[in-house]
Amino acid sequence: MCLRPNDPQSICLAIEWVTHKHALAAYNIVELGCQSVEAIAFATKVVDHNLVAIYESLVALHAMVAPWIIRVHHSTPRLLLLNWFLTLISFNVSYIAPLVALVVPLMHYFLVDFTEARPALDHPNRPLRPILIQFGMLASIWRMLVAVDMTNTLYFHGRRLSAAAFVRTSDHGNLILKLYMVCSTLWGLVLLVSLAHALVVANHCMYVHVNCHAIGHEVVDGSLQGSVLGSGVFALVVSRCDLPLGIYNGTLNQFQSLVYVGIKFTNMTPWTGQLPPTTAYEFVEYARLTRVPDILQANLQSSLTTLWLNNLPMTTFAIPNAWHNLLRLSLSNLSLAYLPQNITAFPLNDLYVQHNALESLPAELAHMCTLDLADGS
């Protein structure tokens, strides 16, 4: 019998639609696709192999078990079993795994190993990512509560759950369901095979901080081995090291996905070579640079949009033409008596020139249509 609380026909139609095998299979394909994309991203960004194994195993379990639940004959237990099963999977992959693998390590970096005055991962879409993660967490919790409520509703309005007989769905399209079962099961096996590969490959670190004082030696090149760290390093910080010539070009360009480079508290004087093509943020602070190093003079990619040159013994300063893509520039504590005349020719959004010997800022800055902030305090 159909449930008949207030509007029997609408309730029957709704239950019939949401419990239809094809509807459940279609929804499951979408959810499994999203989880698979997240699993691949998780495997490439999380260093802890145990967490990667747990995450991919949950997605593989979803892929191999859910099709068999959809094949259950009675619509009520089919809906309840699938909803509970997917709720538990979703809760773990959207809440527990990100909390343990991402939030806890990030809190450690921000509260314990806070090497940067600001996050190095600035991006126009950066505020969107935590919102989406939080939405997934809330959705999985809401889904679990709905599963409890649905169980109680069906229990009180129907017969025994295993014997509840809703309008039976058509058997047409069984071939499509069988194809879905085979493909989903095979995809689960593919995930398990890829998991075995992920457990034996080298590390894939995203953030690397070489603090020579902390590790007890000055060999920066020895600490930056692509075969050990992986080629997908996103952010690199080198601090408190004997680095008179900067990071060697061959060492730096092992990491072709490098977006952030920070060099702090070194004795660097010249620095030659070329930045990796993906570098967008360059921070050099507390070095012995008396002029802009050669690596920042030419052959810069359009990806470089942020440059911090702070606390350096520069009394004069010239802006190279290669900086034409810069949006954020900091020249703090350089003992500058004046700013270069061509500074107004660049599309800067933010300019920081605090703690210099400037008597005033150029009047032309007021006419720069792109400039949002100029701090000369």
UniProtKB/TrEMBL annotation:
This is Aste57867_7987 protein. Gene3D superfamilies: Ribonuclease Inhibitor (3.80.10.10). Coiled coil: none annotated. Keywords: Membrane, Transmembrane, Transmembrane helix. The chain crosses the membrane at residues 52-70, 82-111, 131-156, 177-202. It comes from the Eukaryota. The keyword Transmembrane applies. InterPro entries: LRR_dom_sf. The gene is Aste57867_7987.
